[in-house]
Amino acid sequence: MVFLLALSLGVDVFAVSASCSMTVPKFREKQVFPLALLFGTFHVGMTAIGALVGYHFLAQLDLAARIISFVLLSFIGVRMIWETRRTEKEEGIKTLGLFRMLTLAVATSIDTLAAGITVGLSAAGLLFACLLIGAVAFAMTLGGAFLGERVGDKFQNQAGLLGGLVLIGLGIWSLFG
């Protein structure tokens, strides 16, 4: 059960990593490992916090998590589209930057906070569940980067638009999903 939960939580990081790989030159070579470490670490931490906070705050956490995730992912998606359009005649986006990487890590791990509550209530050991969820997030970040680079090469001109739309779509999905 924990592995399936980890896979479902990893879908966000996979899509975000693919989006970054499509739009940021040399992302896979230079920034994918730090981002994968951030995503994995945040998923471990948010799972643990969710499990420790407990079941009593589930309803409040769920709504707040959905709204925060929606706002962060949509904001980054809109900025990505805007930067792509603005810099089409310039050199393009060079790197993600630490602030953007941290924002993405928070946005993609917010739902893990609520999922951590269910992990805390399950029979699975908390340490095992946290580490598995983090490892899957790390691996799916790498997988998304490799796929995104290939898609980005094919659709080079529309990669920024596509990447931004993916992030906005994830934000909407997190709000209503």
Provide key terms for this protein:
globular; mainly alpha; 7 helices; 177 residues
Architecture overview:
84% of the residues lie in helices and 0% in strands. It starts with a helix and ends with a helix. It has helices at residues 2-23, 27-30, 32-53, 58-86, 98-121, 126-154, 159-176. The protein contains seven helices and no strands. The chain has one domain (2-176). With 177 residues, it is mainly α. The longest helix is centred in the middle third of the chain and has 29 residues, at 58-86. The chain is globular, with a radius of gyration of 16 Å.
Outline, from the CA principal axes?
Answer: globular
SS strand fraction: under 5%
Low-confidence stretches: none
Largest beta-sheet characterization: none
- Mean pLDDT across all amino acids: 79
**How many strands?**
0
N-to-C SSE string, H for helix and E for strand: HHHHHHH
Spatial gap, N to C terminus: 20 Å
For the record, the count of structural domains works out to 1
Structural class: mainly alpha
